[in-house]
Design brief:
Elements: E1 16-20, E2 23-27, E3 44-50, E4 59-66, E5 75-85, H1 87-93, H2 98-104, E6 119-120, E7 124-132, E8 144-148, E9 160-164, E10 168-170, H3 177-180, H4 184-197, E11 209-213, H5 218-229, E12 233-238, H6 243-248, E13 253-256, H7 262-266, E14 274-277, H8 283-287, E15 298-301, H9 306-313, H10 315-334, E16 339-342, H11 349-360, E17 368-373, H12 377-385, E18 392-396
Parallel strand pairs: 11-12, 11-14, 12-13, 14-15, 15-16, 17-18
Antiparallel strand pairs: 1-2, 3-4, 3-6, 5-7, 5-9, 5-18, 7-8, 8-10
Pfam families: ADH_N, ADH_zinc_N_2
Main location: mitochondrion
Domain Enoyl reductase (ER): 54-395
């Protein structure tokens, strides 16, 4: 199976061992030459781009974006059939994370160091493999795949995209491309929080009491389904108009944060083994009191200060400030017998393989709020920016016919 490739490849660096396309390569990473890489290397494609950071008006449809090129032997080119938006796309459009993400961008994929424009947004995709790098053995042209592209790469609101084979998985057979595109980024985010950060899985989750704040969003709807598939007891916090949705996904108890003070409602319930916070802000000021003390209970937030700090203070000072904040909060709550953790999205084709199985077994299903045509990407951004979405906003790059 594919193994995750950690770190950047250095063309002139020391000998390393990496995994590419499921095969181990020893020695220096080999760069695939652009000459002969793709028969369409001199062509262009349509994509939605931004040329500067700002409000929705910076989105621009460009018919002449450079066709993606395979640079590394473990990369694939995918024809995008559907993509979807995440709140991260809204914040990235406005410049969130630029200081850190620009430093992380592969210099082979940008023309000028520090200049990421024109930048394509979008993290999710479902599509078809068009071309494989020299060492990709697990996939072949024509395979239907899905993936979540990390934010330091060009995004998926385009006709074609290049991705590492380690980020890609075969699409669930039970889903259309439009349905599949709703899942990768949010599912991998929930997967990272529950498995990597909390250490939960199907073998140790039964009977655990979990509280999900912001349960009707993309990550929340997936987290409910994962936890219920593993036997947990789930309490979901959302608005009343989303209560039927989260109950249909398996939530055992639903709290409407609009009808009555959330704190007062939670006081009537037993304490929790895990709180998953998709909201952030002042939530942690009161939510932590509902964790079981001295039991290994964890409070996991997906709202992290790292990118905000590096944007505001620069890379070095921002990372230092983030480290201080994390250490301070961790120790403060550990003294009270509670574990405070941050969780981050992690691209992984290997994890998507496992998620594919859960989807095809009927244990996870996509929750789609609305589907937009490729021509209507700005309208999709406007809809997501208004907030209170129930599920995902999907972009049909290619219209599917049933």
């Amino acid at each position: 199976m594919l193994a995750t490739l950690g770190g950047k490849l250095s063309l002139g660096g020391p000998r390393v061992t990496v995994f590419c396309g499921g095969h181990r390569l020893k020695g220096r990473p080999r760069l695939r030459r652009e000459l002969g890489t793709s028969p369409r290397r001199s062509t262009v494609m349509p994509a939605w781009v931004i040329d500067r950071y700002g409000p929705n008006q910076v989105l621009r449809f460009n018919k002449n974006v450079m066709f993606p090129i395979i640079h590394y032997p473990n990369e694939v080119i995918i024809k995008v059939h559907a993509a979807s938006l995440n709140p991260l796309d809204i914040t990235m459009r406005s410049g969130y994370g630029a200081a850190s993400l620009n430093m992380s961008r592969d210099p082979l994929h940008i023309r000028t160091k520090g200049n990421e424009f024109p930048l394509v947004l979008g993290r999710d995709l479902s599509g078809v493999i068009m071309e494989c790098g020299l060492d990709v053995k697990y996939f072949k042209p024509g395979d239907e795949v899905w993936a979540a592209i990390p934010p330091w790469k060009q995004g998926t609101l385009s006709e074609f995209v290049v991705a590492s084979g380690n980020e890609v998985s075969l699409k669930p057979k039970s889903l259309s491309h439009t349905e599949a595109a709703a899942l990768p980024f949010v599912t991998l985010t929930a997967w990272s929080a529950l498995i990597n950060t909390c250490g939960l899985q199907k073998d140790n989750c039964a009977g655990k009491r979990v509280l999900i704040l912001g349960a009707a969003g993309g990550v929340g709807t997936v987290a409910i389904q994962l936890l219920k598939a593993w036997g947990a007891h789930v309490t979901a916090v959302c608005s009343q108009d989303s209560s039927a949705l989260v109950r249909s996904l398996g939530a055992d108890h639903v709290i409407d944060y609009k009808s009555e003070n959330t704190e007062e409602q939670l006081k009537k319930l037993e304490l929790f083994d895990l709180i998953l916070d998709n909201v952030g802000g002042s939530t942690e000021n009161w939510a932590l009191k509902f964790l079981k003390p001295w039991s290994g209970a964890k409070y996991v937030t997906l709202i992290t200060p790292l990118l905000l700090n590096t944007d505001r203070l620069g890379l070095a000072d921002g990372m230092l400030q983030t480290g201080i904040t994390m250490a301070t909060k961790t120790m403060k709550h550990l003294c009270k017998g509670k574990h405070y953790r941050w969780s981050f999205f992690a691209p992984s084709g290997l994890s998507l393989d496992e998620i594919t199985q859960l989807v095809d077994e009927g244990k996870i299903r996509p929750v789609i709020d609305e589907v937009f045509a490729f021509a209507d990407v700005p309208k999709a951004f406007e809809k997501l920016e208004r907030g209170h979405s129930r599920g995902k906003t999907v972009i049909a790059v290619i219209q599917e016919h049933k």
